[in-house]
Design brief:
about 700 residues, 23 strands, alpha/beta
């Protein structure tokens, strides 16, 4: 053996080795594995923190869930298939428009529209038209739920940019980390050496002070450090590219311009903040996801889906079950509180009247022309838009229009062009100064209008109504108690045959009414009339046959009423009349006389003069006896004498052979005359009487009345 003999044993070598490792070995060579582990953990934390943080992870998971459902939804395929079926000319026009818009754009927005997030989509998307049209009820409901989820998600996510801010910060942190690692590793990698000179003051123990030690892992660590630098460089360059991508354009704004131009769905909104950022991120995977997702941002697409679901729910057979005959004796279809107007309605060709109530965003399509028999349309609290072809059809065919509204803006502007409209009914709150309202001035164009009814709060007759007075035959104003003044415009309505002024707080009969020589029917219900001395002026209205002064505060009937010889129907119910003048019965053409709910105690025998009387009511008065002359009115069909103080019913009632309705309930009768059996038209259903009193009739009379 050659060399220097040291006389050191194995334990001394171990001690020297540890001392050199602790004091002489460079810290980089010593802790290199731990540094790699720590840096790797930091990179992992930076990259995955936003996937674990509740405020961001919940948004990402929810977005991915919704995105997948939207991508796979049959409704998405159907909506886009409608676009793929358009003709080539329309597509060429869109491409030209798109190219022009792209050339005019510049800056961040231009680059945003031209980004990959909106390109190369048509080549990837091919629609199977055989399956695109099929969408059952369950799939429709699922798509409807998706629309609601997307709305709520967008409303929540667009409020903030926590995802974007967190992603930017973690990317910046990774870039800084990368630069630090490259800098110090490049400088210290040379410190990893196999031989290490060690100077340790342990001469007393070993007899030596200077040692030359070897680092057995130096060669491996040196190679690994170079590999580590290469991997970190690649990762760092990726982070630098990500940082460039983040700041090259605004990722907090996302435009669907290209999708709008390609699909023709013009109402797809641009989005911002975290919602836009996530769409940009998903575009890096596949832009088709964003396109299919955009379908669920479109209100037009949602309305189409609602329409499809509506059509599936309301089949023609189901709609026909709801058909009924209305007050105008027309076959009517009432639709209340639906989400829209089903297209299947226009397959019911026998429909004559369509009533829509509390339906928002109604669109009347051109297919309404299929309803050849449609003459009446009712819109109650509906916002309605109409296709131009449908408007042309309604102009020619619609005869009756009823509109009930809460706001003047709900009045459809197209109604003023219905030149063949004959009846118009408006129900809703109007301005007190309605004559200055521009919308109603257009009524003058309704040249065929014959009947106009306004239930509102008008304080004077609108000038627009006066403008159609030349052909108006019936006018109804039903107020809510607002006082109606300035009625001189009534004089211009020379062709008016029916006039209703209800609940208008009138204290006198308007003098302008006496100028309406063509008037046949006048209704002044629910006003504040106390005296009707002006009634004498009605003698000039030779055609007046119906006079309704009910629900007022009239205390007496003036004797001048005898001059109204043309009257056939007279309503005085719900007043405060105590005495009936005998002159009333000189109006010998009266067929209908209603005096119920007054304070009348005595019926004059002159009532027998009314040989044409068919209806007579004194219900709820204080009459104690009936004159025998009443039974001379042999044409009487309806007799209402209930809720009085009568104690005896004359046997002469048997003279009323045409009597079919008799109300005697609420009096003091102890027995009914058997002569009621002579009233062959009177049946049990038409006899209003206490059951016990009915039993006082002979059995054969009772049986006769019970037989139909």
């Amino acid at each position: 053996m050659k060399g220097l003999k040291t006389d050191l044993d194995l334990q001394q070598y171990s001690f020297i080795n540890q001392m050199c490792y602790e004091r002489a070995l460079h810290w980089y060579a010593k802790y290199f594995p731990y540094l790699v582990l720590i840096h790797t953990l930091v990179f992992m934390l930076c990259s995955n923190f936003w996937f674990k943080f509740p405020g961001s992870s919940s948004k990402i998971e929810h977005f991915i869930s919704i995105l997948g459902k939207c991508f796979d939804s049959p409704w998405t395929t159907r909506a886009l298939s409608e676009v793929s079926g358009e003709d080539s000319e329309e597509k060429d026009n869109r491409k030209n428009n798109m190219s022009r818009s792209n050339t005019t754009q510049s800056g961040p927005e231009g680059s945003l529209v031209n980004s990959q997030s909106l390109k190369s989509i048509p080549e990837k998307f091919v629609v199977d038209k055989s399956t695109a049209g099929a969408l059952d009820k369950k799939e429709g409901e699922q798509a409807k739920a998706l629309f609601e989820k997307v709305k709520k998600f967008r409303l929540h996510v667009e409020e903030g940019d926590i995802l974007y801010a967190m992603y930017v910060r973690q990317t910046v942190l990774k870039v800084i980390k990368f630069l630090i690692i490259i800098a110090y590793n490049s400088a210290l990698v040379s410190k990893v050496q196999f031989t290490v000179d060690c100077n340790v003051d342990i001469q007393d123990m070993t007899g030596y002070k200077n040692f030359s030690c070897n680092h057995t892992m130096a060669h491996l660590f040196s190679k690994l450090s170079f590999c580590y630098l290469c991997f970190v460089s690649i990762y760092g360059l990726t982070c630098l590219y990500t940082l460039y991508w983040l700041f090259y354009r605004s990722l907090r704004e996302y435009s669907f311009e290209y999708v709008r131009q390609e699909t023709g769905i013009d109402d797809i909104p641009d989005v911002k903040n975290d919602f836009a950022f996530m769409l940009h991120m998903i575009d890096q995977y596949d832009p088709l996801y964003s396109k299919r997702f955009a379908v669920f941002l479109s209100e037009v697409s949602e309305n189409k889906l609602k329409q499809l679901n509506l059509n599936n729910e309301w089949t023609p057979d189901k709609l026909r079950q709801k058909l009924q005959t209305n007050a105008h004796n027309r076959l009517e279809l009432p639709l209340i509180m639906l989400s829209g107007l089903p297209d299947t309605v226009f397959e019911i060709t026998e429909l004559q009247s369509l009533k829509l109530e509390i339906i928002k965003n109604v669109m009347i399509p051109a297919t309404i022309a299929q309803l050849d028999n449609l003459q009446e349309l009712s819109l109650h609290q509906c916002s309605v838009k109409i296709h131009s072809a449908a408007l042309s059809f309604l102009k020619e065919n619609l005869k009756v229009l009823s509109v009930k509204f809460d706001d003047m803006r709900e009045l459809p502007p197209w109604m003023y062009g219905l030149r063949n409209l004959e009846e118009l009914y408006l129900v809703g709150s109007l301005s007190h100064d309605i004559s200055k309202n521009i919308t109603l001035e257009s009524l003058r164009d309704l040249k065929s209008l014959k009947i106009l009814s306004i239930k509102s709060n008008v304080s004077k007759i609108p000038q627009a109504v006066v403008d159609v007075s030349s052909h108006l035959q019936k006018m109804c104003i039903h107020n809510d108690g607002t006082k109606l003044v300035m009625l001189n415009n009534l004089k211009k309505m020379t062709n008016l045959t029916e006039l209703e002024l209800v609940h208008c707080d009138l204290e006198r009969i308007p003098h302008a009414v006496f100028s309406l020589l063509s008037l046949q029917e006048l209704d002044l219900k629910e006003n504040n009339l106390k005296s009707i001395e002006e009634i004498v002026s009605f003698q000039h209205l030779r055609k007046l046959t119906v006079l309704k002064l009910w629900h007022n505060s009239i205390t007496y009937i003036p004797e001048h009423i005898k001059k109204l010889t043309s009257l056939e129907r007279l309503f005085f119910s719900h007043n405060k009349i105590e005495v009936l003048p005998s002159h009333l019965f000189l109006c010998n053409k009266i067929r209908y006389l209603d005096l119920s709910y007054n304070d009348i105690r005595f019926i004059p025998p002159e009532i027998g003069v009314l040989q044409s009387l068919q209806y007579f009511s004194i219900t709820c008065n204080k009459v104690e006896s009936l004159p025998d002359e009443l039974y001379f009115c042999k044409k009487l069909k309806t007799l209402k004498i209930g809720k009085n103080s009568l104690s005896v019913l004359s046997p002469k009632i048997g003279n009323l052979l045409f009597l079919s309705y008799l109300d005697v309930k609420g009096n003091h009768f102890e027995i009914l005359p058997p002569e009621l059996g002579d009233c062959r038209a009177l049946k049990r259903a038409g006899l209003v009487v206490e059951d016990a009193l009915f039993e006082t009739l002979p059995s054969d009379v009772r049986e006769q009345m019970k037989t139909e």
